[in-house]
Amino acid sequence: MDTSTVRESVTDAMKFWEPLRLIYNGALAIIVITYFMAGYPKSREALTVDAVFFLFILAVLANVAYCAAYIVDLFVQASGFRAEWRRFRWVLFLIGLTFAGILTRFFALGFFLSTRS
To answer: Does residue 15 contact residue 85 with C-beta atoms inside 8 Å?
Structure first.
């Protein structure tokens, strides 16, 4: 790949993935809030300073995992499948969002609903 193609691919990837990051983070936040509310008022006991720091770390790790899509995207854009990939890369987003949502659900279940008596 020459420099202009790399630059175009990176720009294209950012234009596609960064707006979707808001949806990704929003969906994960909705899952956490839903399980917090499902366990309320007992789930409020789980919100200590350390717990908030732990949730922050999990949110950062979820965003680091989201960045894995860039590796796949740039690799496939460098191949001969670039045109097809650009039409169907939303599938990678849905698979990643589903996976992250399932992980978030399990963490939220353990975090907020384990306080039920």
So the answer is: no
Q: What is the pLDDT of residues 25-70, one digit of tens each?
A: 999 999 999 999 998 888 898 889 999 999 999 999 999 999 999 9
Peptide bond into 19 cis (omega under 30): no
pTM, full prediction: 0.88
The tokens 């460098």 sit on which residue?
Answer: 78
Q: Do 70 and 17 contact (CB within 8 A), yes or no?
A: yes
Contact 106, 32 (CB under 8 A): no
79 close to 3: Cβ distance less than 8 angstroms: no
CA distance readout (Å), 98 to 23, 28, 39, 70, 105: 12, 10, 23, 17, 10
- Reply yes or no on whether the pLDDT at 3 is more than 60: no
Mind giving me the DSSP string for 3-66?
HHHHHHHHHHHHHHHHHHHHHHHHHHHHHHHHHHHHTTTGGGGG--HHHHHHHHHHHHHHHHHH
